[in-house]
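Re: the multi-chain job from yesterday

Posting the exact lines I submitted so nobody has to dig through the queue logs.
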Amino acid sequence: MEKGKISSLQMAMMMYPAIVATAILSVPSITAAYAEQDLWLSPILASLTGFATAYIAVRLHKLYPSQTVIQFSEQIIGRIPGKVLSFFILVYCIQSTGQITRAYGEFIVTFFLFKTPLIVIIASMVLLCAVVVYGGVEVLGRAAQLFFPVFVVPLILLIPLLSPNFEIGNILPILEGGMMPPIKGAIMPSAWFTEIFLILFFLPFLADREKGMKYGMITVFVVMITLVVVNLIVLFVLGITTASKEYPLMIASRYISYADFFENLDAVIMAIWIVGAFVKISVFYYVVALGTAQWLNLSDYRPIIWPIGILIVQFSFWSLPSTMEFSRYQNTALPFYANFIQVFIPLFLLVVAVVRKRKQIGSKTS
Amino acid sequence: MNRREEGKRKGERKVRWGAFFATAVIIIVIILFQWPKMKQAPKKDKWAFGVLLLIGWGLSMFDLQHMGGPTAWIEALFRPFGKFMEK
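And the result, structure tokens for all chains:
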């Protein structure tokens, strides 16, 4: 169905924005609400789920090297249960795609295009991503590779530009309330880290499969570093008030004033965000299109990209009447939902697969 | 004022013809674009394409924002855990 090949580095460059893009904007304030000045510890704790997910995904991939999770779940637990399980994964993926698009639209409407209807922003982004997904995994990989520096360099430049505003003392006192607040703050970002689960849909198309594990782990590690740095930047600039800002990095970037020349750089943050969101939505969109086609045993996923686009736009509004409702869903339900689908289901599949393989070997030798 | 608000709310519950016809136009464009390329495709592909478009069109009739759906069900399902997150 998919004849393209990508390198494992391209996969990492795809997955990095696919996790970080939305995380750098909303995670600092959500984490700060629980962990206060210890918010920089939470991504380190949350990354444990990321490493575990990457490990599970690669182990599963090694058992069924040429198949995605939608295909091999049928082989592991049987046809009907496998279909049901895959259906839940697909619903999760299409829901996430819709909600990422919604978050993207909300951000643009809040900060830049005040009068544009949300649906216009969402629909145009979905259309753009549909075109990329139509190109296949190779186009997606190259687009991600092309945009990777555009996404990362401004993020790194933020550190020296903001450093005159740093109040290093904001970090104190460390662990004032014990370990519990950072742990609670880590539950939310763990939802982002589990998204590394999506490598299960890309590993079969790698040209260098043996490096899959290495680059999966590198991706999680770099994401962790990025989130720690972003949280620290936000903490140093805004202090405890981080929790009350919806997009703290955006607010922090408005503090930039360097040599009377570099000012009002929030437009740069928007550029990063749009590039990142574009890669992120495309990755999720591709997973939904490919997964659905494999679930229905179609010969090609390209024809169903357009109908899925309509569904994604609808899912970005479904049951989410307002920004308030949306953020409440993200805070209370999403972390557990994401962990359930992206950690527990693969773990369950892996355990069943390993046990069955052992039994087969056992029956053969006896 | 009250009556107007009530009317507004009632209006929202009706079929949203604007969205319905806009989606219909989009679907026609999609079919015009994709169908010629699908001449060789197996029957199953054509069915999947058509059924998914129909689902999208059907959903466009409803007022999705104020309707229960997968997202609302998930939220209800994970509410006990969510309580832990609410301080």
